[in-house]
Write the C-alpha cells for this entry.
Amino acid sequence: SQTIHQWPATLVQPVGSPLSLECTVEGTSNPNLYWYRQAAGRGLQLLFYSVGIGQISSEVPQNLSASRPQDRQFILSSKKLLLSDSGFYLCAWSVMTGKGLSNIGELFFGEGSRLTVL
Amino acid sequence: EDQVTQSPEALRLQEGESSSLNCSYTVSGLRGLFWYRQDPGKGPEFLFTLYSAGEEKEKKRLKATLTKKESFLHITAPKPEDSATYLCAVQSTDSWGKFQFGAGTQVVVTP
C-alpha cells in the first residue's frame, strides 16, 4: 500500500532563517506531488506541484521554492523566512487514472508540518 | 477562474440530528469533485470522488451527491466522532493537475 511521510511535524524558526520541509511517498511510482499551505480557518492554497523529476510548477510568487530530486521525494525550501510564511504545510500525492491514464486521481495527504516563524 | 464555496462555515449538531453540507462550484468543465475530512492538526483524509451530475457515493453515515453546480455531503444520524472539518475540492478541465479547495465546513457533534 502507498504511504506518505512528511517531516518535521513541527518547526519554530526565526525570521530570516532557512527552511527545508521534506516529503517522500512509498508504494507508487511516478506520482504527481504537491505542496499546499493552510492558514488558520482558511482553505488550502496550492504552492507547487510536480508531474515528474525536475518538473515544478509554481502557483504563488513568494520566497519559497520546491525541488524534486528523486521520483518520490519533494522538498519545500526557503532561504529567508518571513513572518507571513507561518502556517500548516501539507504534502500530497496523486496518480494518473482512467482511460489512457489521462485523469488525475484523488489527492492523498501527509500529516502536515506546522511552521511558526517568530 | 475556478471557484469553490462551502456553506455553512460551521455547523453544530446534536448526536442523531441529520444535516447537509453544501459545496458550490464554478468551473469551465468538471473533471472531478472531491470530499475530504480533516481533524485538527492532521492532513485531510480522502472520502469521495464524484465525476458526473447525478452520481452518489456513501460511506458509513456520509453520503455525497453531485449536480451540475453543487455537491452535498449528507450526514445521517451523526455521532461525536463525525466532528471534523469537511473540505470540498474540484479539478477542472482547464487547470490540469490542480485542485481548487473550498474553505471547509467545521462540524461539531455533541452527545
About this structure: Chain A touches chain B through 26 residues (CB under 8 Å). The CA atoms of residues 5 and 113 of chain A lie 11 Å apart. Chain A has a mean pLDDT of 90. The two ends of chain A are 39 Å apart (CA to CA).
